[in-house]
Specification:
Blueprint (H helix, E strand, L loop, with lengths): L3 E4 L3 H14 L3 E4 L11 E3 L6 E3 L6 E3 L2 H7 L12 E5 L2 E5 L3 H7 L6 H12 L10 H9 L1 H16 L29 E3 L5 H9 L4 E4 L13 H4 L5 E3 L3 H4 L9 E11 L9 E4 L8 E4 L14 E10 L8 E2 L3 H14 L5 E3 L1 H4 L6 H20 L7
Parallel strand pairs: 1-2, 1-10, 2-9, 6-12, 10-16
Antiparallel strand pairs: 3-4, 5-8, 6-7, 11-14, 11-15, 12-13, 13-14
The chain binds dihydroflavine-adenine dinucleotide (FDA).
Length: about 400
C-alpha cells in the first residue's frame, strides 16, 4: 500500500502528490473518478483542428504569489498571453471590465478620469442613504443605473437564472470601474498560458516514480482497491472531492452553479477576433463565447477552421459538475456542520475547491496545497528522504 492517498488529480491533489513524493520521498496513490488527470484545468486538442480546448471552461493562469510562480515554472514555461475580454450589448462591442473606454463609448462622451468619476458618482447616488436591499439596488449604488443595466443586470440574471431584484445584494461586493483605458483583465504580476498546454503541465507534475495515478476510480466505489473504507484510518488521505459527498450528504447538499458548454468547429480562420466575448443582453441565451485559437496566437493552427464554445449557466443538480459555490445562508450553515465533522477525521485532509466549498483560482489551489504540505503533512512525513 502507498504511504498516502490523494483523492482527485486537479491542481490541489497533484501539487500535494508531487511535493510529498519529491520533497519527502513518500509513495503516493492518486485516484480520480474521471478518465483523465488535471481536474477542471484539463485540456485536449480538438481532433479535426488540433486547437487546444479547455474542456471545463477557459483557464487563464495568473498570480502575484512568487512562491507559486516559482513552483509552477518547474513544470512548464508560460506564453506572454495577456487576457482581455469584450462584451456585446445592443449590437455594439465594448471593452471589459468597465473602464474609461467603456464609459466614453457608452455615453458617447470624451470624459477624462475626473469627469467620468463625477458622472458615475452622481448616477450611483440614486438610492440616497438607503442600504441596497437586493442585487439590483446594489448594482445601481455601485456604478449607477445606466451602466449597471447595460452590462451587469441581464448578464447576472443569466448567470443565476434569477431576476437580480430577487438575489441578495451580497453577491456583488464591488464593481470596479477603471478610470483609465487599461482593459487588461487581470492585475497580477505574472500571467500567461502554458506553452505546451495544460495537460502536458499536469502530466509533468504527476510524472514521478513515487506517484501512481489511477483514473476512472471513484473513492466511494467499494469495488475499487483504493476506496474510503479500505484506506481511511490506515493511511493519511488528502481528499479534494466534494465535502458533502464525503459525509454522504448527512448535513444536506451544498448548492452550486454549473455550466453547459456547446462546442462547434466553424469553417473560418477567425470567428470573433478575440478569445472571450461576453453577451450582456437577455435575448442571447448564453453568457459568453470562447474562441480557443486566440489563447495561442503563437501556434501554427489551421487558417480555415476554428473552435468556439458557447457557455450557458444554471443551477447544478446532483450529477452535474459543480462549478461555482452558491453560498446561501443555508449553505454556510451546512458547511459549518461539515467542517465540524472534518475535525473528527484527523487522518483525512480536506482541500481544493470541492473539499472546502469555495471558488479557488488555479494559483490559489496550488498555493493552498503548498501550505497544506507545509503545515499539516510535513509533520507526518518530515523524516522522509530528500527534504529541501
Ligand atoms: P478540481 O475540480 O480541478 O479537481 C478535483 C478532482 O477531484 C477532479 O478531477 C474530480 O474528478 C476529482 N474527484 C472528485 N470527487 C472524486 C471522487 N469521489 N473520487 C475520485 N476523484 C474525485 N482558475 C484560474 O486560475 N483561471 C481561470 O481562468 C479559471 N477558469 C475557470 C473556469 C471555470 C468555468 C471554473 C469552474 C473554474 C476556473 N478556474 C480558473 C478555477 C480552477 O478550475 C480551479 O482552481 C482548479 O480546478 C482547482 O483545482 P482543484 O484540484 O481544487 O479541483
Amino acid at each position: 500500500m502507498s504511504d498516502v492517498v490523494v483523492v482527485g488529480s486537479g491542481f490541489f491533489g497533484l501539487t500535494v502528490a508531487e511535493r510529498l513524493a519529491e520533497q519527502f520521498g513518500v509513495d503516493v496513490a492518486v485516484v480520480d473518478r474521471r478518465p483523465h488527470i488535471g481536474g477542471n484545468a484539463y485540456s485536449e486538442a480538438e481532433p479535426t483542428t488540433g486547437i487546444e480546448v479547455h474542456r471545463y471552461g477557459a483557464h487563464l493562469f495568473h498570480t502575484s504569489n512568487e512562491r507559486v510562480w516559482e513552483y509552477v515554472n518547474r513544470f512548464t514555461r508560460f506564453t506572454d498571453y495577456v487576457h482581455r475580454v469584450y462584451t456585446t450589448h445592443h449590437g455594439e462591442v465594448y471593452p471589459m471590465p468597465i473602464n474609461l473606454g467603456t464609459v466614453n463609448q457608452f455615453f458617447r462622451s470624451a470624459h477624462g478620469p475626473d469627469a467620468a468619476r463625477a458622472l458615475i458618482r452622481e448616477q450611483a447616488a440614486e438610492l440616497g442613504d438607503r442600504t441596497p436591499s437586493n442585487l439590483d439596488e446594489q448594482g445601481v449604488s455601485l456604478i449607477g443605473r445606466p451602466l449597471y443595466e447595460a452590462f451587469i443586470r441581464d448578464y447576472t440574471a443569466k448567470q443565476w437564472q434569477t431576476d437580480p431584484t430577487e438575489l441578495p445584494a451580497s453577491i456583488i461586493k464591488r464593481l470596479p470601474v477603471r478610470y483609465t483605458y487599461d482593459n487588461r483583465y487581470f492585475n497580477d504580476t505574472h500571467e500567461g498560458l502554458p506553452v505546451d498546454g495544460y495537460t502536458a503541465w499536469l502530466e509533468r507534475m504527476a510524472d514521478h516514480p513515487r506517484i501512481t495515478v489511477t483514473l476512472d476510480t471513484d473513492f466511494f466505489d467499494e469495488s475499487q482497491p483504493v476506496n474510503k473504507s479500505a484506506t481511511v484510518g490506515r493511511v493519511p488521505v488528502v481528499y479534494t472531492g466534494p465535502v458533502d459527498r464525503y459525509f454522504d450528504f448527512a448535513q444536506g447538499e451544498l448548492s452550486w452553479r454549473t455550466l453547459d458548454f456547446e462546442q462547434e468547429v466553424l469553417p473560418t480562420g477567425d470567428f470573433q477576433g478575440t478569445s472571450v466575448m461576453n453577451y450582456a443582453d437577455a435575448d442571447v441565451p448564453y453568457t459568453r463565447i470562447h474562441e480557443f485559437r486566440h489563447f495561442h496566437p503563437e501556434r501554427d493552427y489551421p487558417q480555415d477552421s476554428t473552435v468556439i464554445m458557447r457557455e450557458f449557466s444554471r443551477f447544478a443538480e446532483r450529477g452535474d459538475e459543480p462549478y461555482y459555490p452558491i453560498n446561501t445562508a443555508t449553505d454556510r450553515e451546512r458547511l459549518e456542520a461539515y467542517r465540524a465533522r472534518t475535525a473528527e477525521e484527523p487522518q483525512v485532509f480536506f482541500g481544493g475547491r470541492l473539499g472546502t466549498y469555495q471558488y479557488l483560482d488555479m494559483h490559489m489551489a496550488i498555493g493552498s496545497a503548498l501550505s497544506m504540505v507545509d503545515n499539516k503533512l510535513a509533520p507526518l512525513f518530515g523524516a522522509g528522504v530528500g527534504s529541501e
